[in-house]
Fold Molybdopterin molybdenumtransferase.
Amino acid sequence: MNSPFVSDVPAAQAHAAWREARAATGCPARVEAVRVPVGAAVGRVTAEPVWARRSSPGFDSSGMDGIAVRAADTVGASETTPVVVTDFEVVDTGDPLSPAYDAVVMREHVHRTSDGAELRAAVPPYQHVRSIGEDISAAELLLPEGHRLRPVDVAACAAAGLTELSVRRAPLVMIIPTGDEIRPIGTELRPGEIADTNSLMLAAQAREAGCDARVTDIVVDDPAAITAVVRAAAEEADLVMLIAGSSAGRDDYTARVVAEAGSVAVHGVAVRPGHPVVLGTVTGPAKPVLGIPGYPVSAALTFDIFAAPLLAELEGAAPRERPSTTARLARKLPSVVGMDDWVRVRLGRVQDDIVATPLPRGAGVLTSLVRADGLLVVPAGVEGHHGGTEVRVELLRGLAEIDRTIVAIGSHDLVLDLAASALRATDPLVTLASSNVGSLGGLVALRDGLCHLAGSHLLDPATGEYTLPYVDKLLGADAAVIRLVHRDQGLIVAPGNPLGLKGIDDLPRPGVRYVNRQRGAGTRALLDHELSRREIDPGTIPGYDREEHTHLAVAAAVSAGRADTGLGILAAARAFGLDFVPVAQEPYDLVLRSDDVSQELLAPLWALLDSPDFRARVEDLGGYSCAETGKRIR
């Protein structure tokens, strides 16, 4: 019988329990020390104190290009009473200083005469002289034990006469992928099969942490086979990581395997994502083992939360820490009480504040980590945060990059994605970060000072106008509206339109499964308007309550056969090789504060919208017109 969760142990308690289990079973506290050439030691951790073997510099030397003199010979020199010295020596920076001299005068302060060198200022003893041991003195402590070596450190060691250093060897991480459905990278996947991307990612994380990493062959869902591989891995590895099978499902064997091969310290940690973590040890030889959930975001964060601190501990070093900053939340962020909730966010500076926009939170949404600029932890005892709340964010990207980020919140459109790529190609320091919350959500975020731009195509049923009536209500006169594109909206259908759908009137037909956009989305407003005009009850449309946040997600659902149709843009249909039934052509606009139109940050975007090449690329997507692209509508 598979092991259930022991409990949802708080992260700090889980760390302590795992540490106690490792000590009790005799897992090594440190990896061994090795001696390596000083030039090969960068990234390694010192295994003993490093003492200087010689002074640097090893002699008094000139700190400037000029002349070496006796300071006593310059006494009384001034602009009105210059002194001419005849006993001096021309020196360059770094030259040994003769014992006869005790100061250096910079070349530009020396006036050569036929009699010698005229000086118009007295110099004190040891001016511009690097004394013996100024940088390093022989026998001084250069670096303590437990110091992770940087390029400047090894340079200082070499200057101090060291040719080898005693360092901790790189810990070896052995990664074991499991699962009947897992296939090697590059394999042609059939329905139900999954590429082994987790091993690739975890091995890269281990190497980035300064460790060696090896990945075993994929092991099928057979507890005995998995146990054998775990035992074999523990013979060599300093940490064994077992991927998948850590929850309470039918084929989740990790806790059972760890118990068979050693002992389970913790099964189930109060973190999200990453909840079904297994922490334990393997015996004979005793080594730590970490059972990692199969969802990719859970796997990546489990490495950060549990593996990275252990690996640093094995080297005798402090865990590497990312810098952090404070930010305002762009929207409400609910959270489950009782678990530390690790939320991925995009960041940008709007006015004087850094704004954090939460990304999709599913444990399988790997792109949320790809696009994340930071990580926000909602503590277990907090039920979330309101929009605008100031929070602490761990940075995944530098603040200088974040300051050059254009924050766009609102409706999704492929043109924004294309613009983001084009801006980055032109200037690697410019980022356009889009968050898809619907047109209305974007306008509210702009009103609240949480973004630079709001993408909107929101139809007002009362007037038949797009966006402008909502701008008037929410922002008043303090708003500018820039036309991005006109675009075709319609029903996305399977190739060949097998159900013969002709338009909105066909949506209530029996057997038609619809996939909708979220409330507040302009596409949702368009659909509701069209249904109201036809007096069609939304409750008669199967799937009306099923919501997706992007046009591409709607197209993906149709492509996968999970829905028969959904309202979206032609470009999304084309991206998935689907057919399209036109419904309307609509404007899609960028809304911003009037004063921000001339903001330097946005200048590259306006230049891009004026580019004929960019407009041609947009129209090549299909279903777009750039006739008014870049035009100020208000």
Q: What stands out?
A: The chain is about 25% helix and 25% strand. Residues 296-314 form the longest helix (19 residues). The first strand starts at residue 33 and ends at 37.
